[in-house]
Amino acid sequence: MPTFTIPCIIVDQRHNGAGPQFALFAAPTGAISKWAGIRRRHETAQGNQRALIKSKLSALGNFLAKNERNTIAPAITMTLRVPQSK
User: For the segment 9-43, what is each residue's pLDDT rounded down to a tens digit?
Assistant: First the structure.
């Protein structure tokens, strides 16, 4: 398997270390597709990708075709450090 080095920011949302850590990064789609996998919910119990709904795909295509300025915002993840009450 190829090895990739991608700069990232590691985010730990919980001060107690009990929660998962997240790696935030930007990389070209071609690089990500070489190592990322998709686990669809209807194929495996551990899946996180929902099944394709053709009517939603069609609506999305119509939205993009309706106006050349129509876009879909990329995912934005924000984390906040909230002081723990004692």
Answer: 888 766 677 777 888 888 877 777 777 777 777 77
Distance CA(72)–CA(76), nearest Å, equals 12
Domain assignment present for residue 25? The answer is yes
- Is 73 part of a structural domain of the chain? no
55, containing H or E segment: helix 54-66
Question: Are 63 and 56 contacting, i.e. CB atoms less than 8 angstroms apart?
Answer: no
Task: For residue 39, give its domain range.
Answer: 9-66
Q: For position 62, what pLDDT does the model report? A: 95
Asked whether residue 4 is assigned to any structural domain, the reply reads no
pLDDT at 35: 78
| DSSP 8-class letter at 63 | H
